[in-house]
Amino acid sequence: MSTSPFWVSTCCFSLLWTLVEGNPQLIGSSEPIVAAPGDDVLLPCRVDPEWDAVGKTVEWSRPDLRVPGGQRLVEYVYVYRFKKMDRDMMMETYIQRTSLSEEGLRRGDVSLTIRNVSLEDNGRFRCFLPSLMRAREVQLVVDPNFVKMMTTETVPHITLITPTPQDETSSTNRWTRLHICIPVFFFFIICLSAVFIYIVKRCRQKQEVLRLAALGPCRNYPNLQINTGF
């Protein structure tokens, strides 16, 4: 029984830590990435919290694209494995136009850069990390009219650079973790209080046993008189 309080405390702490830390999630963009034909775009996808993706497999594919007569069930836009690009798995049209950031991989940033986009690039792109069993989809919209909107100012040409996404999913995950942590924290405090009460109760029981043991002779012979005279 002496190990019970420690075991309960350890279990509560492990549960609290697991829920607070959470599992790694993929963060992308909840809004479509809009570009004009000929622009370079960045399809955001990163691991939260940061996670070293160097040497891990990263797959970018087009889930809604089915090439007639294609033998593969998935058409890959970019495949990174064994610390290099796997050209044999990729669609030919993307081999020379796609890339990942080596520096970003060290932080879990697996965002895909696509150069010189065209109308054929319209659609959904899926980022998948087999090691984490996590996937995230990003919508790319290539709009010819986007150039006209951008050229209303006297700028000859602007290459679209998509900023680091402040995804709503990230905020949602943080609020979800907070909502989980609050009740778990109170549950942890209650468990600690129960352990403390248990320990105090056990100590009092031991003290009571010792006190009764000390009073034992007197309780067994209440009429015993000790004569100290001669």
TrEMBL record:
InterPro entries linked to this entry: Ig-like_dom, Ig-like_dom_sf, Ig-like_fold, Ig_sub, Ig_V-set, IgSF_BTN/MOG
Keywords associated with the record: Disulfide bond, Glycoprotein, Immunoglobulin domain, Membrane, Signal, Transmembrane, Transmembrane helix
Gene3D superfamilies named in the record: Immunoglobulins
Domain Ig-like: from-to ranges: 24-139
One protein family per Pfam: V-set
Cellular component aspect of the GO annotation: external side of plasma membrane
Cell compartments where the protein resides: Membrane
Signal peptide: 1-22
TM annotation in the entry: 182-200
UniProt-listed GO biological process terms: regulation of cytokine production; regulation of leukocyte cell-cell adhesion; regulation of T cell activation; T cell receptor signaling pathway
Keyword Magnesium: no
Keyword Flavoprotein (UniProt): no
First-listed, main subcellular location of the protein, grouped into a coarse class: membrane
GO terms for MF: signaling receptor binding
Highest taxon, organism lineage: Eukaryota
Protein name per the record: Ig-like domain-containing protein
Lineage, highest ranks first: Eukaryota, Metazoa, Chordata, Craniata, Vertebrata
